[in-house]
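Whether sequence alone determines local backbone shape is best considered at the level of individual chains. When preparing material for the folding task, we compiled for one chain both its residues and its backbone structure tokens. No coordinates are needed to read the tokens, only the vocabulary itself. For completeness, the protein is quoted in full, as a sequence line and a line of structure tokens:
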Amino acid sequence: MNDLIKYLKSKNGYVGLKELKLDNFNTYQVRKLLTDGSIVKVKPGLYRLAELADPKNISISFVDVAKAVPDSVICLLSALSYYDLTTFNNPVIDIAVLRSKKVPVEINQPVKVYYFTEKNFNLGVVTVQTKYGDVRIYDREKTICDIFRYRDKIGEDVAYESLKNYVGSKNADYFKLRNYAKICRVSKIIDPSLKILLG
């Protein structure tokens, strides 16, 4: 079993069942480590070491989701929390995927999936590099625009709180925010609010 643990560590903590079998590990060894809590199942056929700590500046649960759904992007409330633009505690991880994509049925993290058009999906994606792998997340400006796009579902109070916190933060890029707002078709809502907040 120690050999399998070492193998997982050599793979930055994550490994797929197919890869394990190719390197002469078997499902019995995997089940034993699952039972004793040494590894956890990220999704069917994908496992990680249970001992992995949160990488710098991001949650290990975000990495799990990025590994489980590689084509997804962390969005909306989860992205707002990452950027400290909300006080709302979101119990699930919000992810965006293209409308044409399918999401695995079983993931070890509670997720809420939002299906975006290609135009909205590709706008404002940034990559956070961690020692366990990359996590894709929308930048602050795109996140705010998305929150306003979904304000009827998420809450107008959360949308306006995020914009207020953004205005009070460092490195606010109002040109980018206004440009994104036009593309996302929320400029008629965001622009007057920005004008008030900026005085």
Notes: The beta strands are 14-16, 39-43, 46-49, 73-74, 93-98, 111-116, 125-130, 133-138. The chain has a mean pLDDT of 92. The chain has two domains: 2-49, 60-198. DSSP finds eleven helices and eight strands in the chain.
